[in-house]
Predict the structure of histidine kinase.
Amino acid sequence: MPVAIFLTILSISFLSAFAIQRGEERQAAAELDNRTAVIASALERRANSSSAYLRAGAALLATLDEIPASRFRRFVSELRLDADYRGADGIGWAEAVRPDEVAAFNARLAAQTPGVTAIYPSLAANQPLAVPVTFLQPDTVRNRRALGFDMFSDPMRRAAMLEAQQTSRPTASGRVVLRQEAGGSAPGFMIFMPVFEPAASGRQLKGFIFSPFKAEDFLASALELEGAGRYGVRIYEGKPTEENLLARVENGVAGEGNVARQIVPIANHPWVLEVEAEPQSGLSIFSMTTLVFGLLAGLMLTVFIRMLTRQAIEDEQALNWFEEQASIRNSLTRELNHRVKNTLANVLSILALTRRRASNLDDFADSLDGRIRALSATHDLLTKSDWGTTPIRSVVEAELVPYAQEGDHQLDLNGPDVELAPNDALSLGLAVHELATNAAKYGALSAPGGTVSMRWYLVDACQVRMEWQERGGPPVKTERGRGFGTDLIQKIVAHELRNPVDLRFEKEGVSCCLTIPVRERGAFAMRADREQQDAGCRQG
């Protein structure tokens, strides 16, 4: 029950933490989408502001027959550019120059622009016109690097100018490196607005008013309107790859968080805005607090219930123990009565057979004394084991201990560890005593060099086979009368072991084979714990 309650509370805590975490993740995703929309709006506002100035400039320049440097500087100053135009490198004018007008344009360029003598690069053979940077305000060292550059020679700029000419709208170029960078690689872009003049066929391209932008500055100016906050911001010209990257503001975001993307139209040209949230590691504080609180509550409740349960179990165990002790006392009383009767019955049988076979009082007393001592030795072993199981080796060694110290003969004991029930141990002890006594009087233990081999092995899980064999003693008479030992082994022992005894008096020595049952401990151990009882075969 405590485990079930703890698991239930733990499951509820995990589900609650999961629900809270999912809610916070959805809220974070909504905030990310909202921030993406706000930044996209700021980018569009910056681009639209620049496009508005270019539209105004195009309308003004279309009314002028000629556009000298002084007039253009005055025009730019009259625009009164404010903060909305931040992020651009300025406003420029690029005159449309046909091949037959190149020489005249170069002369004017050299006269108006110190250090610049001609359009570069030179027009290609099939190039219809050139669009060189004629003026670029403000007049800075950086902007002067672009003067005279034919923007129509660059495919990216040319594509934007052709589209602007066709649509008569401000049009942004793709990713380019501005001439102002002087060999640098910082990406930028340009916005072109065409300027037309009346012609016989309708209208003719006069040139382009344009603004160059360093992409990083443009993004920074847009983020001044709507800050990036804790998000990383990247803008791409087309597919969001490293090659198409225009500008980025990381804000410590390493590229492993959630990303929101939105297409932003910048002067008739699509950009991809990518806003990335800071990666969230593990559970939020609220989710972790919920989970920890649930665990603590579950542990406290589990410990409390466990204490109550343990107390109930201990009370029940105490009652069971008292009942078991009462049952044990009753059982021990019955068992003691039964075993005393068995022992007395064995003593009476031994007494009767001894008296019948004894020829005088001394023989009777000696035979009776040895057999009673054999019973006593086995009883000592059973008492030490609390009348539980007794190893075969211990029973055999207890009966053969008087002969083990003599050096003129040899005892060979060999077999596995097998435990015997109390009554079976008593019967085996009597049998070994009779065999050893006979061997000491007439057999292998009566002469120097004699050998007694006693081996046992498991026939199966329910029986053990024991073999006694004597060699090296005096020759044995094959024809002889039955003695008390023979009757004791073949009658009393065989009856107690419930298996016949094979006793043979061969010329080389006596051999005896006994089959002893291996009983389950619970069949004779009154105080055995059922959970610790040995597995075995139950014999009736």
